[in-house]
Design brief:
The protein is of the alpha/beta class. It has a single domain, classed as Ureohydrolase domain (Arginase, Chain A, 3-Layer(aba) Sandwich), CATH 3.40.800. The chain has 8 helices and 11 strands. Helix 1 packs across helix 8, helix 6 runs parallel beside helix 7 and helix 7 runs parallel beside helix 8. It is globular.
Length: 320
């Protein structure tokens, strides 16, 4: 008589175990990254000018991501008749960059080191913020790897040059990016209402190659019209501030601004970007979970990221 001694597969329900992003493998050794995608937390919020709390964003997004992680070999989308993020896409979570309290420059340097390690390993970097200043070290890490075009989804322009001596806060990242010779341009979607940048900031942004589109303008243009504003053949880095969404669906953020995007508006743009462009990296920032007792903001963040990653690798597979 023979017996099957193989251990049964664990059910591994979302509420069980340690919350890595998507319940993927944890790789704490940044010299041993071997994956298609590497996810890193940047729990830094010292750049905020109003409500802090985004330092808890990476932990909350990771926990929320387990909702979509049943380990069933990918997610089938009946509308697209496609399976996304199957076992062929290798994803690792490399933990968090080390944050030194009150020390912006050291903390940013540690974030930059993590993104460089992911890029050196050939993995697509995904950074979970943190406030939007964490984009500054993310873009620094692309030095010598350009040109890249930045797609910014945000309520605020974030194009302040210097304010009271501050150059690396969460109001500065797009200005710092535009100064880089390897950043070919910025397409800014969702910019609206009373904002963090005065008129001279908008003038400087346009002069430095920033194409600014409000939510209402994006709706009039439609997905095709928005995509036409991104240069053909551009290698795209996506920075997504959760306040780009309407606070009716994403209240858990430090600087909410009403009139933002709804879920499918952003998702359809991201899917079109994945289909038409090489996506070289992304960050999702400003999730401050304590302002949303329902937890829906971090669920939205995780859902957007996982869908976007699915679109990217599905498109790569079609391209061969």
């Amino acid at each position: 008589m023979t017996t099957n001694s193989a251990k049964p597969a664990r059910l591994n329900l979302p509420f069980v175990g340690i919350s890595t992003f998507g319940k993927n493998t944890y790789q704490p050794d940044w010299t041993q990254i071997d994956a298609d995608v590497a996810v890193m937390g940047a729990p830094f919020d010292f750049g905020t000018q109003f409500r802090a709390g985004a330092r808890f964003g990476p932990r909350a997004i990771r926990e929320a991501s387990t909702l979509f992680s049943f380990g069933l070999g990918g997610a089938y989308d009946h509308e697209d008749d496609a399976t996304y993020l199957g076992e062929e896409v290798r994803i690792v979570d490399i933990g968090d960059a080390d944050i030194v309290h009150t020390d912006t420059e050291t903390s940013h340097a540690n974030i930059e080191a993590g993104v460089r390690a992911m890029l050196d390993a050939g993995a697509l970097p995904v950074v979970l913020g943190g406030d939007h200043s964490v984009n500054i070290p993310c873009i620094r890490a692309f030095e010598g790897r350009g040109p890249i075009h930045i797609l910014q989804i945000d309520a605020h322009l974030d194009f302040v040059d210097v304010r009271h001596g501050v150059r690396h806060g969460h109001g500065n990242p797009m200005r710092r990016a535009a100064e880089k010779d390897y950043v070919s341009g910025i397409t800014a979607l969702g910019i609206r209402n009373v904002s963090s940048t005065a008129k001279d900031g908008y003038d400087a942004a346009r002069k430095m190659g920033d194409d600014i589109i409000s939510v209402r303008q994006a709706r009039k243009l439609g997905t095709e019209g928005v995509l036409a504003r991104i240069p053909k053949e551009a290698r795209v880095y996506v920075t997504l501030d959760i306040d780009g969404f309407c606070p009716s669906i994403a209240p858990g953020t430090g600087t909410p601004s009403h009139g933002g995007f709804l879920y499918y508006e952003v998702l359809e743009i991201l899917q079109a970007v994945a289909n038409r462009h090489e996506v070289v990296g992304m960050d999702l920032v400003e999730v401050a979970p304590d302002y949303d007792p329902s937890g829906s903001t971090q669920i939205l963040a995780a859902q957007v990221l996982l869908n976007f990653l699915g679109f990217i690798f599905h498109a790569r597979g079609k391209r061969g």
